[in-house]
Amino acid sequence: MKTWIKSSIAAAVIATGALGTTAALAWGGQCDGPRGGKAGWSKMEPEQMKAKMAERADLHLARLELALALTPEQKPAFETFKADMKARGERMAAAMTERREAAQPKTAVERMAAMEEMTKLRATELADSRKSIERFYATLSDPQKTVFDAEFRAFGGKGMRDGMRGGPRDGGGPRMGQDRG
Question: Which domain of life is it from (predicted)?
Fold first, then answer.
């Protein structure tokens, strides 16, 4: 290969690396997700994360309450449901803080055991949440159930999975499997 070609390739590689470094620094050094999304959550202090999660839960619950147009008879059931969801969020935040502060698993076997433990915890939390939702859902009219189904999807169902995969977040666009037209 000619010397000028090698020099050109080397210059292109260096320029590309420099451009990537500049972009990373311009974004504050956090290159773990899109700007404006949930990038950097893993770098937040536990109290910041807990406050942010509580804020998001309050927002989702307020939206849900408005969208459902609850009757006075349904309000106590919604308050119970809301309290259950908030308690679940606090337990999840506590578990995340505990995991962060615990010693990291060193071996593949230890990592698998930790994942298994977390899966059991999530399964228990999910079962408790389902029971709470079933109690509240039973108080809703058919039109309210339709609204609940649509609104709750973004509360923690598909909306959460999209966010974890780098997909649309917080209403930032169509979710996977939804019509884009």
Answer: Bacteria
In a domain, 55, yes or no: yes
Is 117 part of any domain? yes
What residue type is assigned to position 41 of the chain? W
Give the predicted TM-score (pTM) of the model: 0.57
3-state SS, residue 179: coil
| Domain count of the fold of the chain | 1
In a domain, 2, yes or no: no
Cβ atoms of residues 38 and 169 within 8 Å: yes
Q: What CA–CA distance (Å, rounded) separates 174 from 171?
A: 7
Cα-flanking dihedrals φ and ψ of residue 49, to 5°? -65, -45
**Any domain includes 147:** yes
Q: Return the half-sphere exposure (C-beta side, CA atoms, 13 A cut-off) of residue 57.
A: 18
